[in-house]
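Hey all, sorry for the wall of text incoming. These are the two entities for the joint prediction.
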Amino acid sequence: AQSVTQLDSQVPVFEEAPVELRCNYSSSVSVYLFWYVQYPNQGLQLLLKYLSGSTLVKGINGFEAEFNKSQTSFHLRKPSVHISDTAEYFCAVSESVDMRFGAGTRLTVKP
Amino acid sequence: GAGVSQSPSNKVTEKGKDVELRCDPISGHTALYWYRQSLGQGLEFLIYFQGNSAPDKSGLPSDRFSAERTGGSVSTLTIQRTQQEDSAVYLCASSTGTAHGYTFGSGTRLTVV
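and here's what came out:
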């Protein structure tokens, strides 16, 4: 069965610093991988997704993620964060018709 | 509609009462999903619909939870005899297929007192 582990529950970082949010998944078959963002008091928005092909995928707001099959990872990165990136980030995996989410990583960007 | 609509946005209910949560998906989205988000927790999968059918009900926490979808559109999640541990944000999402990702509603915040 598919599952997701987000290795950091909280990541504090200063503005303009780089950030990496880690995600590992478990599955016995090929998967789709996703990152969603949830800003305070809002619903979840799709940041980016990996379906197949190039292992480096670019999303909205300057975020990118790299699929590593051997490491079963899909880490999210941004080279320079802004205050407005403060939010909860969820990694998700899908083997077929439904999607399972990690527990989330709270990114806090400090001035 | 333009987005996934959930109602009510907030619900406070007394322990033991029944509640109904509604989800109106994006028009044309055949798949509909319910998740539960508890404080400090991730998203817990509850159930999904393909059309009006629910192939996987394994995520429903107990037999107090049920869901239906009619006309391939609106879905209702019903919780009977609510308990305090049912307090959470209930999120609905719809999709044309997993590869396209999900569009989420803003959720219903349920508080059982």
